[in-house]
Structure formats: structure tokens, C-alpha cells
Design brief:
42% helix, 172 residues, 7 helices, Endonuclease, Chain A, globular, seven-stranded mixed sheet
């Protein structure tokens, strides 16, 4: 699944969407390159290029649907991680629940090293990315055993992850 079919997953769930993010960098949106350049140069960004996502998060929150994510990241933070954290601050305000987990801890917990979304505890979208971190598409599964396995990983990841504010505290 790719393109509009994949995008439709984000407007078709009824209760919850959860994502495990495991990569150090993503090239998911072509319109992200210029904002990343500006961020690294210390230039301001109104993040209007993310308005569609922020609006979607506000709509889900207003209708009682939850979107949550655990981002597995390495320390020290890469440039891309710092960039994504700057976006997360605004996305969290819009209703996106993003928590962070140190990569060393994720490996200790034996979490998968793949990225996926779990929608309504019924549909799993296993993301396929190439060697350059470009999203190629998603493989959808509704197999109850596969869903149950990913529900367990979600619970483990969420239980051990912490908010962005807690994760970036000095000494954390």
C-alpha cells in the first residue's frame, strides 16, 4: 500500500493509531528538505508546511481519537533527531502524543527494529523504507497473531518511553 491509500489510513481509524519509529532519519516528505536546511542554519520556520498534519491531530483529538508514537533515538541526538524534536513540540500541542526511548534501552527490551503503525488494534501497517530512508509503502496485516504481537510491543515501548520534556532534561 502506498500513496493515497496509505494516507487514507490516517483518516479512517475510529479510536487509536500508534507508531513505533526506529530510524535515525526519514525522507518521507520532499517538502521537509528546505525546513531541515533552515533548522540547521538556525533560521526561523513557521512550520506551515506541517499545517495539514497539525490540523489532522487537532481533529482526531477533538473527536476523541488518539494518535501516539514512540520514537527510538540514539544519543547524542543527530541533526535530524533535533529537527524532528522541534516539530514534535508543535505536533504534541496539536494532540499527537509523542514519547521517546533511548536506542540502547529499546535494544535491551528487544523491540523490533522496524517501523509500523497499528490502527484500532485491528490493522497493522508495516512500513517499508529503502536504504536512503525513503518510504516505499506499507504492508497491511489483519492477522490476529501479528496484531497481538505488535500490541505487546506497543505496551512495552510505551511503558518505557517518556515525554519529550522528560527525555531532553539534562542528565536524563
Amino acid at each position: 500500500m502506498s500513496g493515497d491509500d496509505f494516507v487514507s489510513l490516517f483518516s479512517s481509524f475510529t479510536d487509536s493509531a500508534f507508531r513505533l519509529e526506529t530510524r535515525e532519519r526519514y525522507h518521507l516528505a520532499k517538502d521537509e528538505e528546505e525546513p531541515l536546511r533552515r533548522f540547521l542554519a538556525g533560521e526561523s520556520d513557521d512550520m506551515s508546511w506541517m499545517d495539514g498534519w497539525f490540523d489532522l491531530m487537532r481533529d482526531h483529538k477533538a473527536h476523541g481519537r488518539s494518535v501516539s508514537r514512540v520514537r527510538v533515538v540514539s544519543r547524542p541526538f543527530s541533526d535530524y533527531t533535533r529537527f524532528s524534536m522541534s516539530i514534535a513540540r508543535r505536533s504534541i500541542t496539536a494532540g499527537d502524543q509523542i514519547h521517546y526511548l533511548d536506542r540502547v534501552e529499546a535494544e535491551r527490551l528487544d523491540l523490533p527494529r522496524t517501523d509500523w503503525w497499528l490502527f484500532d488494534d485491528e490493522r497493522l501497517a508495516l512500513l517499508h523504507l529503502d536504504a536512503h530512508d525513503v518510504l516505499l509503502g506499507a504492508e497491511i496485516s489483519i492477522d490476529p497473531r501479528v496484531i497481538e504481537e505488535h500490541q505487546k510491543w506497543r505496551e512495552i515501548a510505551w511503558r518505557h518511553a517518556v515525554s519529550l520534556k522528560e527525555f531532553v532534561k539534562p542528565g536524563a
